[in-house]
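Weekly puzzle thread! Below is a chain. First person to post its structure in token form gets bragging rights.
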Amino acid sequence: MRNIILFFTLFLSTIVTFAVENVDPVSVTISGVSNKQRDGATGAISEAYAGIAGTCPAAEMNNISTCNSCSQPGALAPCNMNSVYPNLPISVSFTVKTAIDTPATGTVNAQVLIMLSTSPTLTGTVAITKTLNLPVAAGTVVQFDTTTKWSEVCALAGFTTSCTPTGTTSNLANLIIAFGIDTNNSGTVELDEVRKIPLKLQLLPATSTYRAQTFCGTTATSGVCNILLKAGDSKAVINSFPVAIGAEPDGLTWDAVVFFPVPVAQDRSQDAAAFSGFTTQSKTPNVHSMTISGASANVADSAITGNIENYQRYCFVYGTKNRAQNIFKFMTDPLAAPNACVTPSEIVGMLEDKHCFISTAAFGSDMAPEVQTFREFRNKYLLTNSVGKVFVKLYYKMSPPIANIISESEILRTITRSALYPVLAFIQLSLHYGLALALLVLAVLLILAVNIREMVRHKKTFLIVLILLATPFLKADPKPATKKALHPAARAEGLIRISKDGTYIYDLKQPLKKQSGHIRVGQAEAPDISIAITPKNGGATKTYKFDQFYESSSNLLIGYDYEWFPWIAKGKTGVQAGVSFMMAQGHGRLAADPDIPSEESFSFFTVPLTLGGVYRFEYKDKQIVAPYVTGGATYLLLAEKREDQSKVHFAGGFGGYGAAGLLFNLSFLDDDSGYTLDSQYGISNLWLSLEYKAIEVQASAFNFSTQYLNAGLSFDF
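Winning reply:
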């Protein structure tokens, strides 16, 4: 008896072990449904949804893919941009996880079954059966024929075969779509051999309950409400989203908010009617996926775009979409008008009416902006002199064969464009602000490049600088500007004394260096610039100042100066070239209504370029304090860029500058570190600088007058 029980136990255990799901979950695909939800960790489909709302156009029901019932004109009703319909088939495919040997019967069955979740059995369901070719290898793709239609599924769920809602309330069917292989070769696919995915079908009637909702009043709401929109450039911007969101009927999770733009009169007389009279979904909707947290929600993309024209007023009627993709609960209450009606407009920046460059576009056409810019430079600067004419002639002779090679390769075209962009920048600067300014900027950039190269030539430079700055806090007794060296045969020149232990102590005097670099930080005034704007939709012209566009400007100015001292006698006399940088962030103004700040943000750059003379009251090595004065010409470059555009607006003007300051020698505090810095890296003195500087620029488009105190780090090399 014990042996018989053991035999049956082993037999049943073998069956249970053998009858397992043989579907790779990640490989599963389902078509003919409105939406699929995937597991965030595995990527496998975890739920499927089907929605029916509204009437699909006959031309879209191709029996292959879902249709868009929101494109059908008619009375206001729920709709679905991915609606299923009776003749739409359901298709499933998956990959076999492990190989299946050839059974004695010579066939293996695979099945797709759709059944009610309340009675998950394999009988009385809508089923598709497929006989597989044997043997079945791991990785085999099982694609089922698209013979099962939604008319059969709707009948299984208790609805009509036409899949129309019954009654005045929504119809929800909780189904299961199961599929698998007869792994144990029993002749039928069993429950423990299939993969089961919940399938939710929602049918919505065109009743008032599902069409509209009130404007977030005291009564409970269902769906998104109370959205606040702001005008943008060819778009509306979701400024506040939303303050309330109610529960979704049937318990399906809300998925997105859908906006329908309705053009209205500019005088706002039709705003309220756009909501109360909204009767059609024939307009192109704009879908914004949302995340829900409790009773509130948010969207990742706040820009409502698509066929939105500037200076045309729109009211955006919006509805809420659930995971079945049914869109309903439209906000049609006229009280929503003040929050959801806007007039998109071009955005005006401070430099909008000043000099500007055209935006950079890709080369490849004779009419490309870059090609026209090069042609303009050729006509203005090259063909007007003999040297330029020789260069153009040589270029015309050599360029065609090279161009033919470049045109055959996108990689070479990209490399060539990248190499030409710096040249293009120089040419654009020359054409708009003159060749002299372009050469000045080029000279400053070359000086900076050479200077930076010298600084980074040795990797340990900055480490030594940091050590030098830290050593005054680590040592209690600063040492004199001497260097100890045990050298009995040393020369007598510069010998100060010989210590008791036989150490020869020399005064290590070094000649004054002829180059200096200065990094400085200060707080300057913003440029005195204004812009006059006439509202596009009518009204008086108004003038706006810089601080009305850039209220949060910090006015932090960071600069670098390079100095060269060819004359060192009774002080150091030389040339100074520098560049500074100041940035502010703010918002533009709507051209339609300039009193309203735009949602698009702007960045404003103030770049003073200086070139002048400098005199330093420095007479000996290791001088503790060195006063200096400097002054000369400056060119102020202004640039403004909008966050969502590549185009940059420029303006500029010439002026003058003057400065006076003090240099405090940090190398004097630590002789050993100063000696190492000089002998190994060529930096003889490291200074702390304090400077008072004044810049004055009077241009036709703006003024820039500022006096400020800055501080920084300087070094001689």
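Puzzle host: Confirmed. Bonus trivia for everyone else. Confidence is low (pLDDT under 50) at residues 1-18, 355-363, 469-486, 488-492.
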